[in-house]
Records
---
Amino acid sequence: SMSHSQRLIEKAEEYQKLYWDTLHTDVVPFWSKFSPDNEYGGYFTCLDTKGTVFDTDKFIWLQAREVWMFAKLFNVTLDGSEMNDKKQEWLKLAKLGATFLQDHAKDENGHFYFSVDRMGNPLVAPYSIFSDCFAAMAFAQYYKASSEEWAKDLAIATFENIEKRKSNPKGKWTKGTGHRAFGSMAVPMIDINLCLEMEEAIPSLDINHRIDANIDTVFKIFLDERGFLRENVAGKSDKFDTNDTFDGRLVMPGHTIEALWFIMDTVAKKNRSPEILKKCTDSILKTLEFGWDQKFGGIFYFMDALNKPPQQLEWDQKLWWVHLETLVALSLAFSLEIRGEVREKIAEWYLKVHEWSWARFSDPQNGEWFGYLNRRGEVLLELKGGKWKGFFHVPRAMLLCHQNFAKIVQQTKS
């Protein structure tokens, strides 16, 4: 019988095409058509099954991610390629969001609000550093596409702001008293991706030390001995035990896997130690073993490291981004991994997650992917976009999986 690795290699060309076609004939047209707000600028992200807008507020994470995605599509599409005629449309759509963010999204200190209304009036204070992170990425990618200097300046200013806020990511907006302060894995994780993005768009930035420090932090502080990452860990001097608290026991398999592929991507692009790659691959496989629902299939959203009842009531939902980031991670790992028996495990998991996800999230009838399934894998919310789902995880995963399979096809030929 054929090994899993052989089967994946045999399907690589088919998958390479599947991801490309889905991106360009389904996902991008869906958002290009239904999302732009041509009257006030920016984008609508709350889109029902067929793309009808059901809420007009603008969530800055999602506005920024959409700018980033359209600019990214522009930047990776070669002049003269089959998609060349689309490039100017994508640049125009990126500009629609970039200028909206520039005009409406930040307070007098340059921090980005969490949300604004349709016209751009601020609704929710800039309580989180993540709005800033996605804005910096958006302006950097938009600068690369448009060569507009203001975007470069704003990207750098925001990037520097983040460095200042990093030790206290929610600043004066935390609800906590400060008595119990966790380190959050999300901070080094997003910073790794942010640094790589910034450097790619603005090569003059020196971010190497910042990347290495972040990778170090993820493995030294957040890696559980069973291979997955903890979301929150108590500092050495803290008087409480991580395992005694809901937050300390929290594991998000999808978040772990996304963080690990960020690190793998960095190691591959910047020639860091191959030992780090092995560590990432091993952790991804262990996380899948821990996070996979043995009864209904799919990957759990929130888990408790000690198998106590999770705090989050939606712990057992199956989310689009969790499964897509896993497909990105596994296809990337397969293209980088050289240990034969590990390749075999990666291929087995890739095929299993691919089959489960494509059969349930994808909506070929109306386009795009559903975001939220119940534990049994049935559609829970009839939406294609909302407050947390925008033009980001689906198209980014389609683009990256396409690239990863293109690389696997090349490797097989050579």
---
Amino acid sequence: YKRQVSTQSTWGISLSNVRLFDFVVASGKEALELASTTTGPYRNRVLTKTPAISDELVEYYRNLDVSPEERAAVKLPSFNIHEYKEKENLGGQLSEYSDHIIPLLVELFTALDVMDAFHVDEATLLRFLIRVKSKYRNVPYHNFWHAADVMQTIYVLMTGEDIAKIPGPTEKLTLLLTALVHDLDHMGLNNSFHLKADTPMGILSAASDTPSVLEVHHCNLAIDILSEDATNVLGPLNPTDATHVYRWLVNCVLATDMGKHGQYVQQFRELSERVQEIRQQGKAWEATEPERLLVMQMLIKAVDISNIVKPFDIARLWAICVTEEFYTQGDLERSKGFEVANMFDRAKAELANGQVGFIDFVGKQYWGVVASLFQSMQWTVDNLNANREIWSTLASQRKVSIVKSPSRD
């Protein structure tokens, strides 16, 4: 793997620093080790009696010295969460800087007025965020930093002028919570692996005819966290609003199953066409209840794959992380005698080509539909097209470098 990264560095996609390299490799190894336990009886379950979150820890996060510049930056599309992520395990002031992400997430809840609207106590929200963070594993991509990045991005989208008119306070709260919990306890292995490897979760899903193995697991854990008094940010809501949040949250998390991506894209396209017809008639679109849920699902699915629409320097780092996670699954599949798809095979897959392929077959279609409904999201399509051009150029340079390389025979 080190040799492969070194080769990539000659054509402009080297790791930005040693820390990121160490992180993706170490987390990949950890994911492989924990993944090897998923085939033994009951070893897939990680839930134990959760220790209480101390008042001291809550006060630590509350009193972190987060600068006004940081609070402003987290509300922008250009926010780079890797600046915090890469310092997580370095110790001292650097690790403390990494911890700023928790109060920055509180800042986003506050900025959307959901805390005041529902009288959510800051200490309860902090405990919720601390608990959520503890339920994510140290895998290369589907970790807490991905969840935090998804929440930051959903905040940015909800501040768009045309989108801001649709979600009410309850829906805004739902979207923020869903972004944070949508990948809880992800093991770095997709639904397909769990089903073909007969992991306990895969067996349960197959027996109950539910292909969304992970998404159901994420929902279960989210409900567990919200069932604790100390972390129940829905506690102040009236029963009707709380029920709405639970229902919407579950439906939005289930929508992130990429196995159902095609059917959701079709629904979103049909919604976009209906709205366009209404607007062409000079009328204002008043979203129905089912349409509001569909918009929420549309936005959650968008931010779940928003790494490809970030500025290239940020998108590149996410691409490295997700590719390493794919490779780790491919390594495990090969060790079990399973057929390994090319995108999971570190001997066949190639970073730039993989990103071009994902953008062409998934990203362009999806973000095009979403931006056709909400013009405030046009910047995502512009970034996507720019990133695609860069990845395409890098892929071409890679091919040229291989052709010019001397024979090793």
---
Amino acid sequence: VLLESMASEDLYARLESVTARLERVAAKMGGGTGDSEEAVPLYVQEFESLLANEVKGATKACNDVGATGITPILEQGFTNIVNLIKACASCKKPSSVDLMTFLKPGADAINQAEKLKVKRSKKFENHYKAAYECVLGISWVTMAPPMGTTSGHCDGQLQATDFHLNRILKSCKDASDKEIHRAFVKAFKDLNKKQLELVKQNFKTGLIWNPKGTELKSFTGAPTSVSEDEKKEPKAEPEPESKPKPKTKPKKATDNGGMSAVFGQLSKGLTVTSDLKRVTANMKTKNRKDRSGKVTDVPKKKKVTKRVVKSVIREPSTKVVGGRVIAEFYSEGMQEITQATIKNNVFITRCENCSFSVKGKVKAIQIDSCNKVQVQVEDVVSSVELVNCKSVTIYCMGVIPAICVDKSESPRIVLMRPAFNAYPDIVTSNVTAMNVEIPGKTDEDDFVEFAVPEQFMNKIDPKTGKMTTEKIVHA
């Protein structure tokens, strides 16, 4: 009997533990625990707490330092993001147009922060730059794999903000008001760390929408203010402009005769002009030797017309030529290449600010002379080549035997789990600022980023006459 009672107590304890865990998960996802019909999700409460504590602390630090221009930008940007997170619990996934319309206040805040950053201010130059990087971090709401991870973006902006915050600490080391600057640095560090923590905990793969919810257009959630009892200071009324006094003409000095003197002068008749000087013949311009009335023509300089070469804007196109699928001259949007098969090569050239998705298994892919282009590749028989490109990202979704990068600047190779398990060969030549990202040990872990070496040290052994090459690692 004693054993049965102990077993039943152990069973009850385990059931209570499982029930508590399920209730916490339900509260986090907005399901509620049965006490209320419309419970607020836990992640909404956490982001509202971020707005009320960390954001408020950062704005207070800005006002204490004197950089008051940052305060409304922070409030506007983070308030818009919190409103969007509140909408996620009750709205289904919107279209990109509706989402960008909803995020217009946040985009305006980023633009205002950028204008503030380029503003010349010796005292607050680093403060404005740090605030811009911090506000730019709210754009994580538009991120989702494979085009980028939310936590990776937040972590990158945290590091960018810390760069300028460290410069603030260095510049105010011997200043009399260094304590308020240190408080400014601490407030922004706490804000970035808290945002990164909440994003990792709740939105690791992007925003989570309610599939049974309403349209984002119809969301009527009231925007959360930073402080309920905080009142806006009334603007100082402009002082009334003083009316300009009418200008008074200076009085001419007159003789002591008054009007009687004037009438006396008029009574003289023509003799009143007897005191004036007469113009003689030698005073006239036509008779003066020092001045000539002849007008001579000055030879005009010939205008040199420069030949202006007009740039020809060509129309973007995707065509099949001799077994090759060629995509060229694209400058915007997302393009899907579906014409290629296992017997075709795909050639992407002279494109910028756009994305490509190569569907199916193809023979090979060449990317040439592209700028700020993202290419998503599934399966390739031979290799993917990247030549003469700048800021191009390749997302490898399937099996790719080899990746070759030559004469490129800031290339980025992202290997998904299937591509990483195939152990592709990555060959580089004459590249700068290249990074390779691989998945973590599990699907829940963040991607691991590796920098490709750019500098090498060559040593020749005088005994053997052989040369060895080693990469240079900077501490």
